[in-house]
């Protein structure tokens, strides 16, 4: 999809209501750029809630949004470290206390700590919490507000920014991903996101759930890593003197593509997978099945509901 086409289409965004959009991981990178594009195209007239740890970043992003013309419209930040599921529960309740409906929920939390794996207080792998459990728990907890938007005939859409199309088979005997080596581990997380959107689409059929692959995007993800390897790779991707630079996207372009994907490509309720340019990925690189979807759903409900 041509970027110019995507931008032209995004420029036509017009909601017949004031939307509410939540960006979990909206303080940086792809989430930030998608929030900025939405704020710009709606002239600031979207209620936007940014969730993350970095208050200073959120304040400066919010200050850069166009000032809304309706006094009731708010641009807010909620500080939350999503690696602890009790924080996810608390933030979900906070969001629900402020907004009874949600039209768009975009989740793009992540860090590049593949060689520095930690187990959280909840006894879960921190990477999997960021890429899967916390996302699942936010979506599940915020479902009443998404359903309320749908009941009012408004958009109700969820986007999980992860790695659609790069999935591998899930080992149903090792759902905690304790036994797998790094590559199958990463491929399992991709499939978990596929199965997550499919599971939610099955249980909440009026709502739209999307798993996207943003491609290689020039964000601080790698440069914030404790690993010298990822910091070096990130430097190479982010340097305009490197050939890799030309095979990567600027965050603002990724934001345009993802906004297009959520608003236009995912045009009906159900489970979707979209590409880095916001088009439909279909079942390319898909490694799930109905049994894995249902087993993972039950397992995740059990893990997340007790924390
Ligand atoms: N960039 C790429 O090339 C690329 C490629 C494929 C997939 N992805 C995936 O896309 C997603 C977004 O990546 P990005 O490039 O936009 O990264 P980024 O610029 O580093 O943004 C990551 C976001 O996650 C939030 N976050 C990280 N840890 C958190 C925590 N413990 N609690 C709350 N929020 C947390 C950060 O907010 P705070 O710092 O404020 O907490 C930030 O807003 C990630 O899942 C990444 O794996 C990225």
Automatic annotation (TrEMBL):
PANTHER family for the chain: ALCOHOL DEHYDROGENASE-LIKE C-TERMINAL DOMAIN-CONTAINING PROTEIN (PTHR47534:SF3), YALI0E05731P (PTHR47534)
Official protein name in the record: NAD(P)-binding protein
Organism for this UniProt entry: Lentinula lateritia
Keywords linked to the UniProt accession: Oxidoreductase
């Amino acid at each position: 999809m041509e970027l110019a086409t995507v931008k032209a289409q995004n420029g036509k965004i017009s909601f017949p209501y004031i939307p509410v959009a939540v960006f979990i991981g909206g303080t940086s990178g792809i989430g930030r750029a998608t929030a900025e594009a939405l704020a710009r195209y709606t002239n600031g007239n979207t209620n936007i809630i940014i969730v993350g740890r970095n208050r200073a970043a959120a304040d400066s992003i919010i200050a850069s949004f166009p000032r809304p013309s309706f006094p009731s419209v708010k641009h807010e930040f909620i500080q939350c470290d999503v690696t602890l599921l009790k924080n996810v529960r608390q933030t979900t309740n906070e969001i629900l206390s402020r907004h009874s409906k949600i039209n768009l929920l975009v989740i793009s939390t992540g860090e590049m700590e593949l060689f520095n794996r930690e187990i959280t207080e909840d006894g879960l792998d921190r990477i999997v919490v960021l890429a899967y459990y916390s996302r699942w728990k936010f979506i599940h907890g915020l479902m009443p507000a998404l359903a309320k938007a749908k009941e009012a005939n408004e958009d109700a859409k969820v986007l999980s920014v992860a790695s659609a199309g790069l999935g591998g088979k899930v080992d149903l005997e090792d759902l905690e991903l304790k036994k797998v080596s790094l590559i199958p581990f990463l491929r399992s997380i991709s499939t978990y996101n596929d199965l997550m959107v499919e599971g939610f689409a099955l249980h909440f059929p009026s709502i739209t759930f999307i798993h996207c692959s943003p491609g290689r995007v020039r964000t601080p993800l790698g440069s914030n890593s404790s690993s010298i390897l990822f910091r070096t790779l990130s430097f190479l991707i982010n340097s305009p003197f490197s050939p890799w630079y030309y095979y990567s996207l600027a965050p603002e372009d990724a934001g345009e593509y993802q906004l297009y994907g959520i608003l236009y490509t995912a045009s009906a309720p159900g489970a979707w997978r979209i590409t880095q340019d916001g088009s439909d990925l279909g079942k390319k690189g898909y490694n799930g099945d109905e049994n894995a979807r249902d087993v993972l759903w039950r397992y995740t409900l059990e893990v997340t509901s007790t924390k």
